[in-house]
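Much of what follows relies on a compact textual record of a protein's fold. Here is one such record, which you should read through line by line:
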Amino acid sequence: MQLRHLRYFVRIVEAGSFSRAATLIHVAQPALSQQIAELEEKLGLSLLQRSARGVRPTAAGEVLYREASSILRQMEQLPGIVRSSSGEAAGTVGLGMSSTLAASLAGQIVDVCRSGLPKVTLKLAVADSETIRARVEAHALDMALVFEDEMVPAFARKLLFRQRLYAIRNHGEAASDGAISLAELARLPLVLPGQANVTRRLLDRIFAAAGLQPNVVIEADQFSSVLSAVRTGIGATIIPMGALGDGLGAGLAAPAVIEPPLHLTASIISSSDYPLTHAGEAVRDILVRLMAEYLAKSCPPGATWIGAAEP
């Protein structure tokens, strides 16, 4: 077994198909398939389930993905660990962000890290919070900035702020200036993330506890896709943001408060059994400071700082 086998296997799992992985790593698909066939032969196990929709790891493949990701991360970080022994943070740091947070913060985070940590290469991954959390747990990412509903003990975390959820409609279907109730929300056509999404899980639990059945007309996992569907008038949505800056609010009504209040917590998570490198710690410290400054300056509606130090 060689490192290239592990690299190819990890990229295929993350891409979800041989063709997509082949495009990303610039390897011909037949050659990629041959490499995985060699890996399965060496291990004597089937690692991938193939279907018309793509590929997904088998139970053995899940284990290999987790361990291979950890090995590859350590190999990637080794030069930086050695260089950082001189005192200055250096190396590669994999940072995940939920698409909701990335929509307004990713550019600023990358810019501040580039200027503050010139010897650190930041690799940014944007997806829904659950996908990002799974990649941190598999050691495919060093840390992530995510929204959480429940604090899973598998992660070390830095709590940042508590964020209230808001309802948003198309501009032409603006709600009243008052709050909107759960019962009113349940009657609206809703555009929501898939059921694995942290916001969706919270909403499903709250609606069920209230004995309500929401009218979900479409599911979309990317934040930009959700907002696009709302702009076209397909339905309303519910997001952990009280203001939509950077042009995100174009064509949308102002966010409306929900009563009773619903909240998520923004946190920086990392593996509880795999300590951050010096470079990783430096990026995490910048994130904490940047988020504190962001809340202090912009005062986003519904956000309350709960970090160790007041902004």
